[in-house]
Structure formats: C-alpha cells, structure tokens
Amino acid sequence: MNLQQLEYLVALDTHRQFVLAAEKCFVTQPTLSMQVQKLEEELGVLLFDRTTKGVRPTAVGEKVVQQARQVLREVQQLHEVVQLEKGDLVGELRLGVIPTLAPYLVPLFLVELAARYPQLRLHVEELQSAAIMQRLKDHTLDVGLLVTPLEDRALREIPVLEEPFLGYVAEGHPLYSKELLTPADLDADGLWLLQQGHCFRHQVLNLCNPPAPATPRPYTYESGSIETLKQLVARTNGYTLVPELSVLDEVGQNPMVKRFAAPEPVREVSLVVHHGFVRLPLLATLRDVILAQLPARLQVGRAGQKIRWK
C-alpha cells in the first residue's frame, strides 16, 4: 500500500468513473484500475462494485475511503506545517462559498488575494451550506465561507462580518411608503423567497414567520438567485428580503431598498474549517483581505440581532 494508491482510491470515490478519475490523477485509465485492483488484492476485500453505469464503493470500501482521505489529509498537513514554519503562503486552498454570498463577496477579494500571494492557488466553488459542511469533514474542501453558527463540534468558526437584512420593495407594495421596516411589518402577501436548501430562505422565515397570504398567487416561483427575486419584485409589486452585499451600490440611492429599525437583523458570516486545519495564518490573511474590501459597518461586533438559520 502506498500514498499513490490511496490518491487513486479517493479519486475513484469522488468521480465514480475510472476514466474521469484517471484524468484527474493525470494517469491512464489502465494504470489507475491496476493500482486500485492491487490495493484490493492486498487488503483481501472488494472496495468498489463495478457496473455498466459506473462504480460505487462497497460497505467496507466506504470505510477504507474515509480512512484514506484522513491519511492523505494528514500527509498534506505535514507539508503545511513546514510551509508555516517558512512563512510561506503557497499551495492550494479549496474554498466553498454559499450562493447568496459568492456573486457579491468573492469578486471583491479574489483579485486582491491573487495579486498579493501569487503562489497561492485558490479554487472557489459555490455550494449550499450542508454540502460545504460535509465536504469540510471529508477534507475535499479546506475552508468554507458561510452563515453561522453551525453548532457542529467537528468544525471551527471564525466570524468575519455581520451582514444586515434589507427589504427590497416594489413601489406598488404597502411597505414601500415606510422609511424603516420592522419584522412585524412583514407578511406573506407579495413575499418572494429563495428555494429550499438556501440558509437565507430559512433566516427570512425565522425573521418574519409570515402567515398565509390573504389571496394566494395564481402561480409560484422559488428562485435560487437573489437577482431573480429582485426582478420578480419589480415586475409584480411584491417584496423580498436581501443581504446588504447584494445591494451595496444601491443603499441610499434606490428607494426600493429599505433598512430595518434598530436592532437591525443580521446574518453572521464566518470562515469555517475542520478542527484539524493547521494553516491558521492563512485564515487570518484571508479574513483581513475580505474585511479590507468591505464597509466598516459590516464588521463583526455591531449591535444587530443575529438571525439563525438552523
């Protein structure tokens, strides 16, 4: 058994195809197949079921793959410890960001981080919170940027910002005339929501808990995009709630954007890592780069009301 075989094993579990796994490992498909088979022969168990539709780990294979991921992660940590001692910010950083943050926050810091640390290879993926949490535990992501608290003992949270909820209200909606909103003002009439699975949807419902609308719409549409919700609001005389970063350039300029009365409802956004993550100076650097691109009012410690999503 060697590390290369474990890498092939993990790649095959990740991609569930011999050809694709071999491409990702930069080897031929016969080479990868042969090494996985040798590992099975050495262990004396079948690790994968091969079918015409692909491959999937057997029951024992799942346990072996899980342990292989842990071994490879610990080997990577050995390299990271050396890099830390040398003061280097190099290598790969795999970052998962939730969709309600990624389009507004990532463009603010990505270019700056790349310019400041050219030897750091940053790979960013948009993923929902549950997927980020699981992949941090599987060591297929290094860092998550998502809404907290998560209440998960396997993960460590480093708060970065507190982002207010704002109303986005069409001119024809009753809330448009209000200077400041309160949770008591919010009801289901005209409210547009993100689809199931988004933590922001759960936070909106936890904030306003709207009763059923007096007159149900003749249609429903639950979007995965805040930008789509804004367009729906504008065309249907409805309203929605949005995170401040999504309307950063509109605050104080667009009368459709409404703040809440104090204490403003906010969502806590944190960098999240597995407790085994050792590149803590890199986390501090990433946090500093992000905060440098944001208004000071979004920094942690404001007198806002944190809205939970779990």
Automatic annotation (TrEMBL):
<dbReference type="Pfam" id="PF03466">
    <property type="entry name" value="LysR_substrate"/>
</dbReference>
<keyword id="KW-0010">Activator</keyword>
<comment type="similarity">
    <text>Belongs to the LysR transcriptional regulatory family.</text>
</comment>
<dbReference type="GO" id="GO:0003700">
    <property type="term" value="F:DNA-binding transcription factor activity"/>
</dbReference>
<keyword id="KW-0238">DNA-binding</keyword>
<dbReference type="InterPro" id="IPR036390">
    <property type="entry name" value="WH_DNA-bd_sf"/>
</dbReference>
<feature type="domain" description="HTH lysR-type">
    <location>
        <begin position="1"/>
        <end position="58"/>
    </location>
</feature>
<dbReference type="Pfam" id="PF00126">
    <property type="entry name" value="HTH_1"/>
</dbReference>
<dbReference type="GO" id="GO:0003677">
    <property type="term" value="F:DNA binding"/>
</dbReference>
<dbReference type="InterPro" id="IPR036388">
    <property type="entry name" value="WH-like_DNA-bd_sf"/>
</dbReference>
<dbReference type="InterPro" id="IPR005119">
    <property type="entry name" value="LysR_subst-bd"/>
</dbReference>
<protein>
    <submittedName>
        <fullName>Hydrogen peroxide-inducible genes activator</fullName>
    </submittedName>
</protein>
<dbReference type="InterPro" id="IPR000847">
    <property type="entry name" value="LysR_HTH_N"/>
</dbReference>
<keyword id="KW-0805">Transcription regulation</keyword>
<dbReference type="GO" id="GO:0032993">
    <property type="term" value="C:protein-DNA complex"/>
</dbReference>
<keyword id="KW-0804">Transcription</keyword>
